[in-house]
Each structure stands twice: as structure tokens, then as C-alpha cells.
Amino acid sequence: MTVDQTTRNPMKQLLAVPLILLILVGTTFPATATTHPDSTGLPETSIYQLTSTWTTQDEATVQLKNFRGRPQLIAIVYTHCGYACPMIVQNMKRVLGTLSDPERAQVGRILVTMDPERDTPKRLREFATTHDLDLADWTLLRSTDTDVRELSAVLGVRYQQEASGMFSHSSIITVVDADGVIVHQQPAINRGIQASSDALRQLLNAAPQ
């Protein structure tokens, strides 16, 4: 994935990424995608360029850039989901399970709800308990519908709420590097996990010791 060096609008660059991702889910992107930091020091294609404000399961207020500094495994889910979302979480855990304990400690885990109206911080904590997620390692986020849709567009995740209150949605696991640049995505259901594991391990091996 190359960056047009004549363009210096980070948000324009960032929002163009999903057009590529819709075609290339299941692909690992080269490290050269992280070029051209702006005045913040962030690459133009970093998801941390988004300035939205989020609330965690513990009711802390954060921005995405607060997660800068280590690779992150990210998915968009909702807690009332009966099948796909539990499978997404399970496959994220499977990816992490391929790493050694020291490697796993260097990887963040983020779940974003596409259903902020119903997924309160309390509900997110209950979801974490149900799925045995250690909140020392996992962060669950909610925001406004507008902000969630902005992030989902950047991640190439599509969703739509049905009349029943349930959601039709794509199921994607995303790996971002320490600067928030997408380096790998994979369908989260009925696919192998090795490519995501390899992408994380490559990032960890390349990190300064």
C-alpha cells in the first residue's frame, strides 16, 4: 500500500484506506505503509488520526491515540450478538494463544461496540466476564454512533441494525502496529488464524528491544 507523497491531508489518506481493505481483507500490508509521519509524529494512515472520544468499560474517557505504543488486535462487535461476535472474540483469543506469554503481554486487545445505545459500560463489563476477558489486557469501547461508524469505515467493517435490534455486520479482525497503521486483516469466522499470528509476531520482532 503506497502513499501519495503530494497529498498531506491525513484524514483524507486515512478514509481512503477502506477502499483498498474491502478488496484485500486477508492480506498483510508491508511495513512501508507506515511512512510519512505528520506533525504529530503519526503516519497519515494511522487510525490514531481519528480525534473521536471513547468511553471504556470502566467509564474512563480515552482517545484512540491513547493506545499508541504497542500492536493492537481490534474488532467491532456488539454484546447482544448470539453467534458471530462470540466467534470473533474466540478467534482473537486463538490468535493470542499462538504467542508466547512475553509476546502476548506486548499486544493490546480492543473491542469496539457497534451498539452504543444498549452497550453501556456495565453491559461491556458483563460481556467481558461472560467471555472470560481479563480487563487488565482487554479494553472495550463505546462512543457515539457517528464516531463508531467513522472508525468502522476506516477498518472496512460494515454493519446495519435490523428492525429486531440485531445487527447484520461483517466480521473482521484487524492488526495495527504501534502507531495505529493497519498491517493485517482477516475474516474472523471460518478462517485460519496463522496469518494474524504471523503479522503480530513480525511486529514484535521488529520492535526495538
TrEMBL record:
Residues 1-33 form the signal peptide. Keywords: Copper, Disulfide bond, Metal-binding, Signal. CDD domains: SCO. Disulfide bonds join 81-85. Pfam families: SCO1-SenC. InterPro entries: SCO1/SenC, Thioredoxin-like_sf, Thioredoxin_domain. GO terms for molecular function: metal ion binding. Cu cation binds at residues 81, 85, 169. Belongs to the SCO1/2 family. This is Thioredoxin domain-containing protein.
